[in-house]
Write a structure and sequence with these properties.
Peroxidase, domain 1, AF1862-like_dom_sf, antiviral defense, CRISPR type III-B/RAMP module-associated protein Cmr5, cytoplasm, CRISPR-assoc_prot_Cmr5
Length: 156
Amino acid sequence: MQTMQQKRARYAMVEVLKLDDQSIPQKVKDEYKSYANALPAMIHMNGLGQAAAFYKAKGSVKQDKIKKGEFDKGFAYRKLYELLSGWLIQADQPYRKPENHEGSWDLMKGITQNNMHDYRLAQAEAQALMDWVKKFASAYLVESAGSGEKTVTEEE
């Protein structure tokens, strides 16, 4: 049986590793790391609801305006919101989807439709999860040695 910390760590690592992809530019990965580092302070200062709403808004972009293979400015914000939402609406979390609810369910619905006790639990859980996200983003979303501008060949 895993501890809650182990479950958080596993979830954070799986989600961060989804971004460790050659098709995602290093600039986008760096933005993700920066926004991941900023999110816990924003949650602490403004609360989970305000921080989540900010990240959701910054991550909202009209997909029809983006060319295939390009990344919009809100990509990193959107991925962090999705990560947080995905964790906090799981079955053993404060904002799990109610059994009688039909339709989609996400973090913002959980925040606006639950009580203050659940809000406090979710806020503490978000902070604990983000500790892992920050660590894994710093560890895995680094520029690989072969991805720099200049590559060294055997002839040089």
